[in-house]
């Protein structure tokens, strides 16, 4: 005798609703890398690491995969409290079925909103409020994400360039010293960058540059 087979879709939930929820979840997962770049510390970190490589004079070392991986792990380290709060506030209730997907998204976005508001510059935020031609929000917490996210990103780029400027200074000095010595020796045909590169590498190693840089980046979000 054939057995009855039934599929439970949840109390009061139709197949169409479940399909819409599944599509929404897949969409969010597909946009996760972009969201990671937009609303976390990743932008500042990866730009600083890229500027460091350029300042030293290296083109492909460390490789892009290594730089991005380091930026991702530093981002995960910095953002762990925010990730945990977002999961507990919005994602876990959606998985348990206690809140709808749209409400869960708003709840999960709240910790990221607080993080961005903590690090966005007021002038950048005001710029996008003016560009949006919408009434000014009563409180910073009322700012729309479409205004807050681009303001946060350009604030992060500004801070990354400020850190990059400080990173560049000692390496520029090394280049200038090497170039002056080569000119004094009459070796003007020899590219100074070729001679200064090993000195910049050993300088970065002696000052424990990776530890200093990683520590400074993490503390900059403290």
Could you describe the 3D structure shown?
This protein is mainly α and 222 residues long. The chain has one domain. The protein is built from nine helices and no strands. It has helices at 15-30, 32-39, 42-56, 64-96, 101-119, 122-132, 145-184, 192-206, 209-219. It is elongated and about 80 Å long. 21% of the residues are buried.
Structural class: mainly alpha
What is the element string, with H for helices and E for strands?
HHHHHHHHH
Helicity level: over 70%
The overall strand count is: 0
What is the count of structural domains?
A: 1
Question: How many strands, which pairing sense, and closed or not: the largest β-sheet?
Answer: none
Mean pLDDT: 82
Number of helical segments?
9
Low-confidence stretches: 1-10
Note the overall shape.
elongated
Gap from first CA to last CA: 67 Å
Radius of gyration: 25 Å
Residue share in β-strands:
under 5%
